[in-house]
Amino acid sequence: MLEGRFWDLIDEGASYDEVENALLELATPYGVEVVSCLELRAPTNDSSPFIGRMFGKRDGEYLTRYRKLNLAEHDVVVQHVPRTEAGFYWGDVKHKAVTREQQDVFSIAAEHNMKDGLVSPFYGMNGRIGFTGFWGVELCKDPRTRRLLDAAGHELYRYAYRKAAEDGEAAEVRDTVDLTDRQLEVLYWASKGKTDWEMAQLLKIAEPTVNRHVEMAKKRIGVRSRTEAVHYALMHRLIRPF
Fold first, then answer.
1. CA pair distance 237, 225, nearest whole angstrom
2. What is the pLDDT of residues 33-68, one digit of tens each?
3. What does 142-160 look like in DSSP terms, one character per residue?
4. Which CATH superfamily is domain 2-173 in?
5. Which of 54, 101, 115, 200 has the CA that lies 20 to 30 A from 72?
């Protein structure tokens, strides 16, 4: 069974790619196109990595717009997570979007084929709060599907947390990649959705110089994309997420 394969891989601590494939096999029949695990709040004295992982169709343009426009400040879905222990659909909270900025969050998501969603809150030790979100154009909403995705969401978040912690421990053994202050600066501003031109204005350097620092950071980390470099820096707490 496809569902069983997902649970087995989670238990085995399989690779991200293996878990992602099994997750999508489980979830796409119910209208899910993207799944995200995101940490909203962690204890200030907790040294474990920041959790921020996407599975499925990664829309870099949407993430850039979300960060650049600071949509998290107006996102009623994200704001509702700490107020409930139960999973919920976007439709359950969409009526709370009363300001133009709050409504824009849904409008911009719809432009990127995310018109519906199911959110599974996660509460860990010492006040840790996060969630797994299932996004798509139109999700199946029968009770069995909701229970299945909600359970998968909780297990996926625990898996992402455990893997991030393991990756962090491995990084400590081999030493975290040594990045220059300028490389860390450009990755920080890239995490906020800033373009090379905007970073050049902020840092008072030439735009090609910004790109060179990004490329050098990618090379040192050993990744191919800017998004992966930012994720590495966040996961290893080289830059702050907010």
1. 19
2. 989 888 776 555 455 555 567 777 766 678 777 777
3. -HHHHHHHHHHHHHHHHHH
4. Transcription factor LuxR-like, autoinducer-binding domain (3.30.450.80)
5. 200
